[in-house]
């Protein structure tokens, strides 16, 4: 035997009318729909909010990267401008070859004896800009170093080992190698 719903029993007994039953069904459907709509926007708004936050974070990172690139380009431009404005002109008749290390390569720059002396004393510094080597005064090199430290080639004084048998002998600054 099939169970009869309470609504059908009330209709048979005459305690409720067909209109009342339809109204109750409609109210039930509306409440169900309302509940599902309220839970959907909450879930949707959560995902929308999360995606919006992720987009803001990506945009912030992208803007930060752009600012860093812009600052890097500005510092490169300033360093190039300093080198171009203060570089020591190369003498076309310079005969002394001055060698220095650029990474793993030994490079040669032809200088005059006076320029060689200034390079050995650290008064002139070699800078690299646009794959070209220039000599600039040491005070300008300090300013370039603040902007682009990898562009400079300074003579580094080597530490003397305690057990070095040649430590007592001085190496002349004008030694050619």
Automatic annotation (TrEMBL):
This is DUF2058 family protein. Residues 15-78 are annotated as: Disordered. It comes from Neptunomonas concharum. Residues 52-78 have a biased composition (Basic and acidic residues). The lineage of its organism: Bacteria, Pseudomonadati, Pseudomonadota, Gammaproteobacteria, Oceanospirillales. Residues 26-36 have a biased composition (Basic residues). Residues 38-51 have a biased composition (Polar residues). It holds the Pfam family DUF2058. It comes from the Bacteria.
